[in-house]
Every structure is written in C-alpha cells, then in structure tokens.
Amino acid sequence: MKNNNKPSAIWVRSLFLGVALTCHGFSVTAQQLKVESKSQSLKSILEQIENQSGYTFLYDEKTVNLNRKVSLQMSGSLTQILQSLEQQTYLQMKLSGRNILINNGSVGLLTGKVTDEEGLPLSLVSVFFRELNQYFLTEQDGSFRFQFPAHRLKSAEVRFSMIGRQGTTLNLSLDKQQTVASTVTLPLLSVGLEEISVTPRTNQNLESNTSLYINREVIEQSGALSLNDLLSLVPGQKIAAPSLQQVQQANLRSASMGTNSLGTKDPFSLNNSFGIALIMDGIALSNNANMQTLNPGISGMGNSYVGGGISGLMGSADRGDRYTGDYTFGGTDLRQIATDNIESVEVVAGISSAKYGDMTNGAVIINRVAGGTPFNFNMQLRDNATVYGLTKGFKTKNLGAFTFGGNFTRSYNDNRDKLKSYDRVGSNLMWSTAAGKDRAFTNTFTADYGRHLDNVRRDPDDLTATILRYKAYNFSIGNRLNYRIDNSFLTNIGFNVRYSETYQNTYKEQYMNNTYIIYTDATNVGITNGQYASGIYTAVTNLEGKPVDFTARLDLNGSFHTGDILHQFNFGSSYNYSKNKGRGQIVDPTRPRNNTSVANGDNRSERYYDFSRLHAQNQIGLYAEDVFRTTIADRNLNVRLGTRLDLFEGYVTFSPRTNINYELTPDLRIGLAYGWGSKAPGLAQLYPGPVFYEIPLYQKTAVKDNGAVDEANSVYLLYVDKFTPDNSKLKPALSEQLEFSVAYEHRGFRAGVNVYSKRNYRDVYSEMSYTPIILPNYVDNPDPEAEVPYVTSGTKRHRLSRYTFVNGRTTKNQGVELMLSTPKWTAIETSLNLRGGITKSIYRPVQNFRNFTNNTNNPNYAVTGLYPVFERSTWTSNAAITSSTHIPKAKLLLNFTTEFNILNRTNTQATDGIPLGYFTENGVYREINEFDEKNIDYKHLLIPIEEVRNQNQPGVYTNFHLNLSKEISKRLILTFHVYNVFNYRPQYKRSDNTMVIPNDKPSYGAQLRLKL
C-alpha cells in the first residue's frame, strides 16, 4: 500500500491541540491497572481491580447486580477503567478516599409533544437529539421520548423538522429523572408567520464551522429552477438569471472560469467541480462512471465533448457559441436536481465531517424528509421556462408516512426559434416508518425516476446545421435505516444504501456534401489501403453510456465521558462501486464526421469503443471522529476531531479533519478548522480508450469521363498507428485547507467572517506529447503502365500527437467571505442582509501551446507553438445587499437585492504571448532564443498583448433583482421574481476590442403555490 498523504506541521499541531482538549478533565492516578474479562461476572472484575489498586468497592447488593456478564479487556489508570465500566454497566462509580462508591446510574427521560398551529398533534415529525445522535418519529398523539444518562448529561439540543412546516430547535436543561419539554408547534410555512427565514444562516452545530444552512423557507422564496440557483446565495457567488439552458456544475471557493459551455470547459474549473460531493439523503451522487465524451486522447480533456451551435438568429447572445450538454470530468449536472421536495441544503465549503469521502473541494448536503402534507401544486412561469410540480404526503396508522412528488419542466433558450430546449421530468416516492420498542427503529425508503432531454434541433433555414441530443434517464432506490439504542455506549446505528442506474445518450447528426470521402476501418498497426466512398451522407456521432453506482455506508454513534465531558464518538465505513455498462462510442467508419476528402497529416479518427468491457471502480472508506464540548475559562469550546482512510486501486489516503470553535463571550465566537480530502479519478480518466492515428502516405484519385470519382481505380495508402494510454498510475487528487472564522450575534444582529487558504495537489489534467516516427516516402511510379502506381523514395519523418492524463501541479485558493444581517426595523418592517467575498486562485497550467494550420508549402512552418507556463493569479469578488420587507399582517414579503460585481482580474505577463519554441509538421522541435517578428517560419505565433490581457474587468458593476411574495389565502401564495429589474446593462470593451456586457438581459418569472 502507498501512503500518499503526509500530514503537514499544521495538522500535527492541530492534532496535538485536539488530543489535549480530549484529555481535559481527566483525573488520572499514576498506577496502571490491567483487567482481563471475557463475559465474566461484574463481581470478578471488581475483585481484579481491588487486588491491583488497593481500593475497596462499596455498594448495595440489593440494587447492584453483581452477576451480570461484562467483557472488559484493557490496561490503563484506575480512572480510565472505571469510566469504561460506567459506559458498559450504566453504573455510577465515584472515588471517596480509598473507597469506590457504586450507585445505579440514573436514567433520565426526556418527553414532549409536537402540534400544529391549531394545537392538533403531529405524527411522524423527525426529532433529533444532537448530543446522542438519535432520531425519533413522533407517535400518533405527537409525543416523543428519549432516554439519557442523567448523571452525565445536563443539557441537550433537540431539532424538529417536517416537510412543509417551519422547523425549530430547542435548547433544554435536563433534570435527573424526567424532563418534560414545552409543547413544540410546527406551523405550515407561510409568509404570514411572525418570523421567517429570508437568507441562509451559519450554525456552529452543523458539519463545519462555516457551513451555510438553506432551509425550506429560503428555498420557496428563491424561485430556483434547480439546485444551482440556490448556490448563488453562497457569499462571493455571482447571481445569474434562473435558466436551464447550460450545464450547471458547482464551484466553491475558486476564481475560475465556468463549465457551462463548450468554450469554457476549463480543466481548472472542472477539477474544482469534480471535487465537490453532492450528498442526498446521506449518500453521495457520484459522477465517476460518466464517460459521455469523445476520446480525450485525441483532443484533450477540455476539447473532447460533442457539441455544436445553438442559435443562428442575428442579435442573439448565443450566436456563434458552441454548446455541449455533457458534463464528464466535472461534477453532476445540477439541472437534474429540482427543489420541489428538498427540505434543506447545507453548503460545506470548508472542512466537512470525516464521514464524507471522495471529495476535495467541499460538499453540498441535500436533505429530504417524508411526512403527511397537504396536496401542494406549484407552477412557475418564466420567460424561458415553465415548471409544474406536485407533492402529497399521506399518514397511515400502521405503515408510517408516504410522500409522492412529480415535476415537469420545459425550457427554451430563445422563444423566437425554439431550436434549443431542455425538458426535465421527475418523480419521487418516500416512505418513512418507525417500529420497535419506543419506536427505536426508523426507516426511510426512497425511489426516484427522472428523464432529461437537452435538445438542439436543426435550423430549417440552414441545411448545414446540426442536430444535437443529450438524453439521460435515471432510476435510483435508496434506504436509510436508524436504530436508537438506550443505556449503552452505542447510541445509534445507521445504515444507508443506494443503487442508481442511468441511461445516457449523446447524439449528433449533420449533413455532409462532398465530392467523395476516404476512410479506413483498420485497427491493426501498419500500412494499409484506405477506401473511397460517396461524399454525400449523414454523419452521426453516437455515444451510449449506462453508469451504474452502488453505495453503502455504515454509521455507528456512541457516547462516553472523560471527567465531565460528554463525547459523541462517530465511526463507520463506506463502500462505492461504479461501472459503465453502455455500448460506448458507436462509430460507422464509412460515415466519418470530419471532412476527409483530402488526406492530411493530422487525421486522428474514432473507432468503436465498448464501455461495458472496462473494469469497475471500487472504493472503501473508514472514518472515526470525536465531537465534544468542554469549557475553558467558563466559556464553551466545541471540537470536532476526526480522520478517514480511503482505499482506491492500491492507493491509501488519510484525511485528518478538525473543526474547533470557542465562545469568547456569549455573543462572540471564533473558529479554527483544518483538514485534508481526497478524490479518486473517474472512469473516463482511467480508461479513455485507444487513439488511432492515420498518416496518409500516398493518394491518387481516379476520375471517370463524367467527372465522377472512380473509386475502384483510386488509391489511398496510409499508416495506422494505435496508442493505448496507460493511466493506471493516476493517483487520487488531494486537498489541504486551513480556515479561520469569527461569528458575532447580538440582539438580532448577525455577522460572520471566514478566511481560508486551500491547496489542491494532484488534480487530473490531460497533457499532450509528440512522438516522431519515420515511414517510407511514397511517390508516383515513373512507369505509368505499372500495376502499382507508387514507389518508395527514401523516408519521411512524421509526428504523432497524443494526450495522456497526468496528476498536475499544486493550485491555491485563498479568500475572505463575509455575511451580515440586521434585525427587523419594526417601524418599516425591514431588515438588511449583506453577503460577499473575494477569492484569489493561483494555478500553473500543465502546458501552454497553440496549434496552427499550415496553408503554405513551407516545410519549416510552425504548426504548434509552445509558450511560457507561468503561474496565473486570478481575482474575483462579488457582493450583494438584500433589503427584506416582511409585513406579517399583510402576508407580504419583498426582497430587493443590489448586486456588486467588484473584481474580475487575471495577472498576466507581457511575455506570455511570445513563444519559446515550436513544432513543424514533421515533428521537429525548434527552440526560439530570441523572437524575430519577421521570421516567416514562426512570426504568426506571436499573441498580441491585447489578447493576452483580455480578461480584466475595468471597474465595479451593479445589478438589481426583485422578489415579491404575497399570500392570498392559507391555500394560495403568489411570488414574482425579476432578475435585472431595471434592465441595467453596462458595457465595456476588452483590450482585444471585444464588447462585454456583464449583466444579462432581464428575466421575469411568476410562481403560484397552491395547498389543498
């Protein structure tokens, strides 16, 4: 096994700090004891301790069962052994002089009741006891109960949630015997409630110090068409008009280009997105088995997608742009995740819990719950989309609760021609039930089915236009099981499992109209004869994938004490299986998609490639973490300290993680977090397939008397090379992040600042290399009567270009995030919310080159220029101020947002456009020591400084957005959303004279929510 993750000095210091905190409160005697017991009586263990320690146990034989069987094998101090016995026996043991007093550990009972706004009991409400990590689904009468160690636990945080209702959290002081919580009321979500959430919030009890929590109230007000629209609420993110016309992939804490179109498939951005885990219902949605791409060995990682134009209308913003609906090498397409049945979203851009693996850049945790709900009908009409959604929850006496949901979306890129469309159909079933004594067993079963069609129709006025079709049908089933255990070290056992299968099809069709084509279907290396065929046909590109993903995760939660400190100890394991069973790249060599009427020296063509024959990907993860709270100087210190181990293809990675926050005052909290993460390569990176390179050696085209090509008498001689890249040495990518946070809350004012520094190691990129090859040089046979029309005349040097996947260099992301909210100003019923951030990304490309076409007869003409690979520094900064006017009596909510696009700049050097060397067509590399602008061989390689520095934004630009929600009645809510409400579209000209409009055109939407 290989250990590829060396902890830095920072982690070592963090680990020592966590260990020191864990040991706080120990009262350790110097004497070391050893106890050996396998299912022996408690009395025999007490005798072992008495004989070794000299202490005497005092107890009442009528109340303490000395014959109970106990297994204990450990060495340690007297205090440590007594604490271990307390955990197993639930007895209370206390030192008194040279005696040890034994009493029955008291078991406390926490009870309560949950009702609706009319006082009627609510059943099947999810109740979460944070300190014990236990769940309870309320009874028919709305009651709940938890047992807890009364002699150890003095306070508790209990959370209540149910779909369609406003959740709440209680912080309770626990009595020794029985604590009865005040009745909890969960009202239906309504604009008429006195207090509602209008923006995301942070919470110290989430997965990370800097986690951002988006609840159902914020989701309903956002007008989101997909999960991607909710991520625009993250500090530092630019707000975009809700749309489904581009691929949407998450990017967190990165100043990078997008991944939504064919022109912006930046490898740096793809790696950031690929490293973000999407966790739905406790299980990651993996994109590891997605292989919907042409062979990246031919054109590289960012240029291998199937794509084409999407609009031919004059004046269209998309005119001339190339589009692809595939999302290989990056994260899952967020357009596929509708928000209808999402209860909450937690965005973890910082250090996540150790239980989550296969991630380097954060996580987006999506929670869905089942329960009895009214019939909900949702309709949203936008200028480019129509959305319909239905949900209904049923309660039963004995079978728990069922929730059914369905949604349909149709969206057009431009309503004038409707050539580009995106359709989404989704359905969902959730079944939650509870059973056993005190409803200790809870289970939620989910089934999802979705169809997604991203379509570009052929323009009827352009016969050369293409048809593009990106289809995906997916089905998944999952199950979440929790078993609550009372009076034991283990407090909860959780087992999550999910199986998903997706059918993916990428299809491109284009009419070809040429005199003739030349092709070969040879797969053996060597010289072979090509074939002539008619040049009038329909060229088809067809990729068929069937990703299959199976994930299982076992979570064990326990609790123990060190002194007065209660520790929540979480540990478990996970397993993931990913495979693609699709037919792969389906190719008809007689109908090539490229124009090959003339043989050229750079003809890399496709062959059939069967995905189903590839190896499956297996990943195993183990984790353990300790969550506890202690006090220093009478102030709370919260610690989450853990690590995980991941195994992938013979590689082992360790990911230590810690989140620590300390309350300097009741209102002010500071936090420190540090951690590592790892991400395994995807199947498309491990097995891109063989690359076939065709080198034309001789061509003679015969013509008939009528001018047509005489295919039978024409000759095409070529050399076929086959290169199969070996990517088995690709290592998992790694990340290391350190962050510092400050949070302040006082009298309704909330403020938070996060400062972070993140390094990514070994991200996966494609690297091009050239291999020279010397082949015979074929010329016309001087004898015109000869049977063979060619003869050899010496040799000729050729070059073969190949792309392989490699682990890249270190990249850095640093930044500051800010959130500020004020209490409601009663006089005008208005509060203010500010969010913003600045990010600096430092990265160094693996290569920097450009290819050129030789339209001359100059054999020394530069066809590939190599440029300096400098470290790039990109700065981006965005902020938004939202004014929220909430009038409960009028049941009205008005959100007005002012957005500031502050900074978008990339530092470049003037020398970036001056080549260091170049390749000729025959593969000869020539170094340029001093660039000569008059040299006819390479003068065209010079990139003007205006083009090098064309990404910088010259100033600050603003935009304005409006959301208005009005509750007509308890059953009906109307919402209006306007992006760029003032149609403010400033312009600036880049250094290369390209006009840039930072704000998109206005986008209008209306939403109707009906509850029956």
Structural class: mainly beta
Q: What percentage of amino acids are in beta strands?
A: over 45%
Distance between the termini: 59 Å
**On the 0-100 scale, what is the average pLDDT?**
86
So what's the oligomer here?
single chain
Cα gyration radius (Å): 33 Å
Describe this structure in words.
The protein has 1012 residues and is mainly β. The protein contains 9 helices and 58 strands. The two termini are 59 Å apart.
Brief account:
With about 1000 residues, the chain is mostly beta strands.
SSE layout and pairing:
Layout: E1 2-3, H1 9-22, E2 32-41, H2 42-53, E3 56-58, E4 69-77, H3 78-89, E5 91-96, E6 99-104, E7 107-115, E8 126-129, E9 134-137, E10 143-149, E11 155-161, E12 168-173, E13 178-180, E14 184-185, E15 201-202, E16 212-215, H4 216-222, H5 227-231, H6 267-274, E17 277-280, E18 283-284, H7 296-299, E19 308-309, E20 322-323, E21 344-348, E22 363-367, E23 373-382, E24 385-395, E25 401-412, E26 420-435, E27 441-456, E28 466-484, E29 490-519, E30 526-529, E31 531-545, E32 547-562, E33 565-580, E34 584-586, E35 603-605, E36 617-632, E37 635-648, E38 651-663, E39 668-679, H8 683-686, E40 691-700, E41 715-723, E42 733-746, E43 749-761, E44 764-780, E45 790-807, E46 811-821, E47 830-843, E48 849-851, E49 864-866, E50 872-887, E51 892-907, E52 917-919, E53 925-927, H9 945-948, E54 957-969, E55 972-979, E56 988-989, E57 995-996, E58 1003-1011
Parallel strand pairs: 1-38, 3-6, 7-13, 7-14, 17-22
Antiparallel strand pairs: 2-4, 5-6, 7-10, 8-9, 8-11, 11-12, 15-16, 16-21, 17-18, 19-20, 21-22, 23-24, 23-58, 24-25, 25-26, 26-27, 27-28, 28-29, 29-31, 29-32, 30-41, 31-34, 32-33, 33-36, 35-40, 36-37, 37-38, 38-39, 39-42, 40-41, 42-43, 43-46, 44-45, 46-47, 47-50, 48-49, 49-52, 50-51, 51-54, 52-53, ...
